[in-house]
């Protein structure tokens, strides 16, 4: 653990941007946890008299067409956006890591089935497949999570498969097998924990993409329904006012979205440098 | 007999800047090669043989820097030439072949084209003539069925064939100097001999000077006129091949010879050299970089190294030679 | 080469089968009664029953699948509820708009990313290398619909350099004679420069938004593979042979480095086709993406399904083309097959 910490410090000093990403991450975390508590206004409270006001001291990010405070809405939306992304990444990890590890470890038909499944998903442009899935399953937030998890599944399955097939013949796996552990136990107790660091990197790298994907789906009206505050849908609402010059309605949620994705992408790169330097490009 | 040096390397020092400090890879290296002569640079891996060649060729890694020295070739100092002037001469006046011929060739370009590129670049042939000239070159390096082979890609040829192609590229413009960096590493034994004979014959035909870099003393003894022994970025001994084998003077040369499987030596007699190369990042490198491993070490060894002449063309850098 | 084509076609077939199965499954996944869904929100029970029979939803699942395949073979993707038109015809008329936008964006992305990646690798550690890193990290982080809106605000509302974000051509211009369906090509072919410039002005902002988004993987891969090729043995040979720096970088290094870049083109197309939907929505671009989004809003399911299938088949075809392109550039693949 200590050398890893030292290496982490080295990576941070080499690349201060990763430090910035950690700072941003902390900020988003605070917003996600305490957002509803620290928001100055009720994000759903409309006020016709205050509609379409540009940013001011009272309303830092201005107000939207219904007079709702955009700052409060952007703040409160953090929880929903990050939860969707996080849940889908966890789900993709669980599906992908398990089936990938099994495919790499057992080979044979398990490998073929998992491989064919991953190939079939990859045969679609991913966002289009996600659209199709949400449209078919119904317009619910949970379906955005499922769709995003499905399109991320092949990535996880492939990484896990490659790592597991390398480790199948490794000494420690052999030792675990010889000391009388069943296959399932070897797989879950010895192979899976060993590929966790690499899967963690994968998770942080796909987190940004998951946020983008979820926001993209809600931008075209899938999943999240108004008046719920969510970045993608807020940008969509603001889009109608861009041509008349009310820029703040779309800008602030869009900027929050961009910053969140940027933060997770940098974090993923930084984490990869710390855990798995050989993949560095 | 007055030999004319084709290449004279003097006081060549090279440093590499790395994350963990400056590595003094070469320290005042000097040797020369006469026209028509074959000289071997021998030493264990990391002794600086290849770096010497790369420095002379001007193809060091960006991290490497020549800090002193000259490389006199045809009246000019190669180390002082601009990159552009050097590139004009490389491949025409002096050229180099490498180990691992299969990776040393462009994998997606026909071998004939790769030979033609060099010919056209250095005015050895015009673009329309180049294919025919490439076939000629393949004939010179004795590749059977050259008309068909010019159309081949490297992955379609064996390692030995690829090395012949490399030789054809290097010799296309009839250079005055050839540096061969472990040209037979990775080839099987019979192919090794064929390639070495080929280089020897072609060098003899054109009176070309050859520097042959190897860690294999037996191979050096068989094909070279003189041997330059390197250790940790120093030239420790230089002598005619026969004399070095008969009377090695530097303690390291003695150990190196003892570590070489000869015709008489059995595996049991084969000695290993104690210790390893010193860490060249150390700021307090001793004057003699072999002294830490040396059994003949005396108090004088801390003084700057001497260059003792022992008979004709035999030089040793040691305070206490045999 | 024919052998390569056939072997690649053979690998595309399972993908097509998978795509067809998945799109079939998507229609059966509809929560509740698919017939009610296909019939629309305001349909009477009688209409729903009619739709059920018409779609064959009263039959067994295998029989439904066979019916689906037969329909596909006849080019029948069903009818749109809102327009009553066959989905195939509507998609066909809208496809050129999407294709023109996507390909133009791809050309932009490749045209920027590859020189940027090559320069970043050749001049490693300099400002251009840092620029490349910033562009690639920022590029993937920008939600494409947000960049599009931002561009529309800045270049249309503030600066008035760009036309209104409303479709392929200004309302005062009439589309060029239909030859390829690509306005730029058709207007150039007919010599109608006014329409050409008009179409180009409309195309610029959406295409740039998409290009920025898809730039990153290309530039990243170009830089990485260029760096590893520049450090390889055969480049050292080329330099030791005194080849001119231009020959070393382009004929020797670049042609080898471009191979991994071709393989990421697949991912880039996945990005582009997805981004296409969002950008068409922002710029009211009359392509198949906007068609699908409008259908989604009105719960008109047949067009959505047709759209997903069309995109997937296009994507499989593009991947096939990428494989063949790879074979053209790399003799090892071409001659091995």
Notable characteristics:
heterotrimer, A: 281 residues, mainly alpha, MetI-like fold, 10 helices, 75% helix, 0% strand, B: 322 residues, alpha/beta, Rossmann fold, 8-stranded mixed sheet, 4-stranded antiparallel sheet, 11 helices, globular, MetI-like (chain A), transport (chain A), transmembrane (chain A)
Structural summary, described in words:
Chain B: It is a peripheral membrane protein. Chain B: It comes from Reyranella soli. The complex is a heterotrimer of chains A (281), B (322) and C (337). Chain A has 281 residues and is mainly α. Chain A has one domain: Orthogonal Bundle (MetI-like fold), CATH 1.10.3720. Helix content of chain A is 75%, strand content 0%. In chain A, helix 3 (70-106) packs antiparallel against helix 4 (108-122) and helix 3 runs parallel beside helix 10 (248-275). The two termini of chain A are 25 Å apart. Chain B has 2 domains: 1-82 and 177-275 and 287-321, 3-Layer(aba) Sandwich (Rossmann fold), CATH 3.40.50; 94-174, no CATH class. Chain B contains 11 helices and 12 strands. In chain B, strand 9 (226-231) and strand 10 (234-240) form a beta hairpin. Chain B is globular, with a radius of gyration of 20 Å. Chain C is built from 14 helices and no strands. The interface between B and C is medium-sized, with 30 and 24 residues.
């Amino acid at each position: 653990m200590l050398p890893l910490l030292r290496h982490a410090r080295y990576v941070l000093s080499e690349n201060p941007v990763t430090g910035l990403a950690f700072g941003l991450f902390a900020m988003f975390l605070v917003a996600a946890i305490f957002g509803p508590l620290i928001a100055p206004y009720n994000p759903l409270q409309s006020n016709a008299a205050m509609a379409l006001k540009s940013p001011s001291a009272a309303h830092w990010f201005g107000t939207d067409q219904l007079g709702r405070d955009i700052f409060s809405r952007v703040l409160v939306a953090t929880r929903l956006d990050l939860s969707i992304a996080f849940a889908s990444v966890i789900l993709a990890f669980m599906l992908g890591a398990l089936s990938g590890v099994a495919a790499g470890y057992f080979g044979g038909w398990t490998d073929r089935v998992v491989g064919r499944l991953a190939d079939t998903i990859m045969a679609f442009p991913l966002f289009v497949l996600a659209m199709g899935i949400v449209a078919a399953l119904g317009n619910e937030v949970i379906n955005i999570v499922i769709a995003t998890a499905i399109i991320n599944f092949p990535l996880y399955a492939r990484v896990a498969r490659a790592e597991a097939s390398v480790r199948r013949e490794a000494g420690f796996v052999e030792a675990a097998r010889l000391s009388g552990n069943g296959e399932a136990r070897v797989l879950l107790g010895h192979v899976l924990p060993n590929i966790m660091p690499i899967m963690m990197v994968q998770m942080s790298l796909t987190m940004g993409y998951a946020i983008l994907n979820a926001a993209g789906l809600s931008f075209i009206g899938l999943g999240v329904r108004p008046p719920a505050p969510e970045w993608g849908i807020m940008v969509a609402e603001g889009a109608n006012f861009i041509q008349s010059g009310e820029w703040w309605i779309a800008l602030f949620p869009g900027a929050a979205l961009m910053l969140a994705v940027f933060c997770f992408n940098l974090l993923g790169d930084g984490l990869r440098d710390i855990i798995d330097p050989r993949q560095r490009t | 007999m007055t030999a004319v040096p084709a290449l004279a390397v003097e006081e060549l020092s090279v440093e590499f800047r790395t994350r963990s400090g400056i590595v003094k890879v070469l320290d005042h290296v000097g040797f020369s090669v006469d026209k028509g002569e074959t000289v071997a640079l021998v030493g264990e891996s990391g002794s600086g043989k290849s770096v010497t060649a790369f420095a002379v060729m001007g193809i060091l890694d960006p991290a490497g820097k020549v800090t002193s020295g000259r490389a006199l070739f045809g009246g000019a100092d190669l180390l002082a030439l601009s990159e552009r002037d050097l590139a004009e001469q490389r491949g025409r006046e002096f050229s180099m072949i490498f180990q691992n011929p299969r990776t040393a060739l462009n994998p997606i370009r026909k071998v004939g084209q790769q030979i033609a590129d060099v010919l056209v670049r250095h005015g050895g042939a015009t673009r329309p003539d180049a294919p025919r000239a490439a076939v000629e070159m393949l004939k010179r390096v004795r590749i059977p069925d050259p008309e068909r082979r010019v159309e081949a890609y490297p992955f379609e040829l064996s390692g030995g064939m690829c090395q012949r192609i490399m030789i054809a590229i290097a010799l296309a413009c009839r250079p005055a100097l050839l540096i061969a960096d472990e040209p037979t590493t990775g080839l099987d034994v019979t192919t090794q001999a064929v390639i070495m004979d080929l280089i020897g014959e072609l060098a003899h035909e054109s009176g070309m000077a050859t520097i042959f870099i190897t860690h294999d003393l037996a191979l050096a003894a068989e094909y070279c006129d003189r041997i330059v022994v390197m250790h940790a970025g120093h030239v420790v001994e230089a002598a005619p091949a026969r004399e070095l084998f008969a009377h090695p003077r530097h303690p390291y040369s003695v150990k190196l010879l003892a570590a070489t499987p000869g015709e008489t030596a059995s595996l049991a007699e084969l000695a290993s050299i104690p210790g390893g190369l010193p860490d060249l990042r150390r700021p307090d490198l001793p004057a003699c970089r072999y002294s830490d491993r040396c059994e003949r070490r005396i108090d004088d060894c801390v003084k700057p190294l001497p260059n003792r002449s022992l008979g004709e063309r035999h030089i040793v850098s040691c305070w206490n030679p045999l | 080469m024919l052998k390569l084509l056939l072997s690649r076609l053979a690998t595309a077939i399972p993908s097509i089968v998978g795509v067809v199965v998945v799109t079939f499954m998507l229609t059966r996944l509809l929560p509740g009664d698919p017939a009610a869904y296909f019939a629309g929100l305001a349909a009477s029970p009688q209409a729903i029953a009619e739709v059920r029979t018409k779609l064959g939803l009263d039959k067994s699942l295998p029989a439904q699948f066979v019916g689906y395949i037969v329909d596909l073979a006849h080019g029948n993707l069903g009818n749109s509820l809102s327009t009553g038109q066959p989905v195939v015809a509507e998609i066909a008329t809208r496809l050129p708009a999407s294709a023109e936008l996507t390909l133009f964006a791809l050309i932009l992305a490749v045209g920027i990313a590859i020189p940027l990646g090559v320069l970043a690798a050749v001049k490693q550690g300099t400002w251009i290398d840092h620029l490349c890193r910033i562009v690639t990290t920022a590029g993937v982080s920008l939600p494409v619909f947000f960049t599009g809106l931002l561009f529309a605000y800045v270049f249309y509302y503030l600066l008035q350099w760009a036309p209104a974000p409303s479709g392929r051509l200004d309302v005062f211009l009439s589309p060029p004679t239909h030859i390829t369906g690509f306005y730029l090509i058709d207007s150039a072919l007919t010599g109608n420069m006014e329409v050409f410039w008009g179409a180009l002005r409309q195309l610029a902002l959406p295409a740039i938004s998409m290009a920025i988004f898809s730039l990153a993987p290309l530039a990243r891969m170009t830089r990485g593979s260029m760096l590893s090729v520049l450090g390889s043995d055969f480049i050292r040979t080329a330099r030791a042979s005194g080849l001119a720096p231009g020959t070393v970088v382009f004929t020797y290094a670049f042609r080898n480095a471009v191979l991994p870049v071709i393989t990421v083109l697949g991912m880039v197309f996945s990005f582009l086709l997805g981004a296409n939907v969002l950008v068409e929505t922002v710029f009211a671009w009359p392509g198949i993406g906007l068609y699908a989004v409008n259908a989604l809003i009105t719960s008109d399911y047949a067009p959505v399904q047709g759209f997903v299938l069309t995109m997937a088949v296009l994507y499989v075809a593009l991947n096939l083309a990428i494989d063949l392109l790879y074979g053209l550039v790399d003799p090892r693949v071409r001659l091995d097959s």
